[in-house]
Amino acid sequence: MTKIALAQVAGGRGGPAAVLDAAGRIVEEAATAGASLVCFPEQFVTGWSPKMPPGSGEPLDGPLSAAFGQMAQENGIAVAGSIVEAAGGRRPRNTVVVLDAGGEPLADYAKTHLFSPDGEDCNYTAGDRIATFAAGGTTFGLAVCYDLRFPELFRIYALAGVECMLVPAAWPCCRLSHWETLLPARALENRYYVAGINTAGGPGEAYCGGSLAADPDGAVIARCGAGEELLIVELDPAAVHEAQSALPSLSDRRSDLYHRLLSKL
After folding, report:
1. Rounded Cα–Cα distance for residues 250 and 259 (Å)
2. 228 is catalytic
3. Which residue in 39, 85, 111, 120 is the catalytic one?
4. pTM (predicted TM-score)
5. Is 264 a catalytic residue?
6. Domain architecture of the chain: domains with CATH
7. Which residues contact 85 (CB under 8 A, 6 or more apart)?
8. CB-hemisphere CA count at 13 Å for 222?
9. Residue 204: pLDDT above 60?
């Protein structure tokens, strides 16, 4: 079994220094609870913003990643945090970074699908690759917020052998029912765990939390309320492989046919 911690916090409340100070206490609490990994919401240090000028952000090894790494090293737990990643003077990336229990870089993933209704696609550079990593005996994959609406990405992760998807997000109250539907759906259709880590409160649009984890049958096994909360979730990697063997929808795919149908559109 693998224990993970979902840190549902407000985005940007009190400024970066205050947020990081609170995050350090949360990481300590997660480690004390026996978690191998703690994951925070999308851009939780500053609060998510779809409008970032070219040249903004920081490198992957910048101050925020260093802060996450220090928390990880001090507590012996992997930490997944979110940054605005500088992209060489171009539009920045909306990126999740993972530091291992020794504080060293483990994985990074740039949001693939940018939220065009708010203009995120005009102000950020979209990612173009997946990212997987292992922690506590479980193989994880990363997606961010709006990515949840694109099942193709989650299927690719399933074919890559992922056992649990982490989805940090700033998902608003007005569409929370979609969040609560899509997370279990992605879990069920791919027969793996999916954990969504949402923002609670914060500046700008109201966020209502609702972080949750769904198992390979699509059943919700843990859920947060609307406020700030640390949710501890137990994962069983063997259950993923048992579920995929019992109902082998991944191996019954018709990828050759799908490609031919797409070519005719």
Report:
1. 16
2. no
3. 111
4. 0.96
5. no
6. 2-263 (3.60.110.10)
7. 57, 58, 59, 60, 92, 93, 94, 95, 108, 110
8. 20
9. no
Instruction: Give the DSSP per-residue string, 204-233.
Output: SS-BB---EEE-TTS-EEEE--SS-EEEEE
Residue 203 has pLDDT above 70, yes or no: no
Q: Check if 42 is active-site.
A: yes
Per-residue tokens: 183: 């997370």
Q: What type of residue sits at position 212? A: L
DSSP state string for 176-192: HHHHHHHHHHHHHHHTS
Flag whether pLDDT at 206 surpasses 90.
Answer: no
Evaluate whether 60 touches 97 at the Cβ level (below 8 Å): yes
pLDDT in tens, 218-254: 999 999 999 999 999 999 999 999 999 999 999 999 9
> Which of 3, 39, 85, 145 is the catalytic position?
145
pLDDT per residue as tens digits for the range 35-90: 999 999 999 999 999 988 888 899 999 999 999 999 999 999 999 999 999 988 88
Q: Nearest-CA neighbor of 126 among 141, 146, 140, 107?
A: 146
Q: Which CA distances in Å does 242 have to 5, 93, 151? A: 24, 37, 22
| Cβ-contact 125, 93 below 8 angstroms | yes
Annotated active-site residue in 3, 39, 42, 85:
42
